[in-house]
Design goal:
By secondary structure, the chain is an alpha/beta fold. It contains five helices and six strands.
Length: 149
């Protein structure tokens, strides 16, 4: 089992939690971004820099992940793609995507994008806070404990 991180938009506080969890559980982690990303020393955590372009990092993750892996992403279309491969998907707010909630989330995402494009609504989700950080860390720990049994 590997942890894949859609790292371009992943908040630093979430990356720090992931670094510690990967090292504590000896789980391989791959951060994928279109920019350079520093990682802690060691062989468990690697960063892959992909070329700039629309969904290039997403494509790399989809191609590389395998059944049972975990993808960390706030990108709902990416989550939908990896779920089709029987890969787990967790967003930085500590919410797992699954076959039951992904269709609703895709529909809501598309609706909100349309609203933003027409100027009827602005902005995106609020920034992550300490509660979100704790919820994410707890969800990740529960998942990794279940996998490592």
């Amino acid at each position: 089992m590997k942890i894949w991180v859609d790292a371009d938009a992943c908040p630093n506080m979430i990356k720090e939690i992931l670094f510690k969890a990967a090292q504590r559980t000896q789980t391989e982690m791959i951060l994928v971004a279109n920019q350079y990303l520093p990682t802690p020393p060691g062989a468990l955590i690697t960063a892959v820099q992909v070329p700039a372009g629309f969904d290039v990092a997403d494509g790399y993750i989809v191609q590389g992940c395998e059944v049972g892996d975990l993808v960390i992403t706030a990108d709902i279309p990416l989550a939908a793609e990896v779920l089709q491969k029987k890969v787990h998907a967790l967003n930085p707010r500590g919410e797992f995507y699954d076959q039951e909630n992904i269709r609703h989330r895709l529909a809501m995402r598309n609706f909100m994008e349309e609203m933003r494009n027409t100027g009827q609504v602005g902005g995106g989700p609020p920034p992550l806070g300490n509660k979100d950080k704790m919820v994410f860390a707890n969800a990740l720990d529960r998942f990794l404990a279940g996998v490592k049994k």
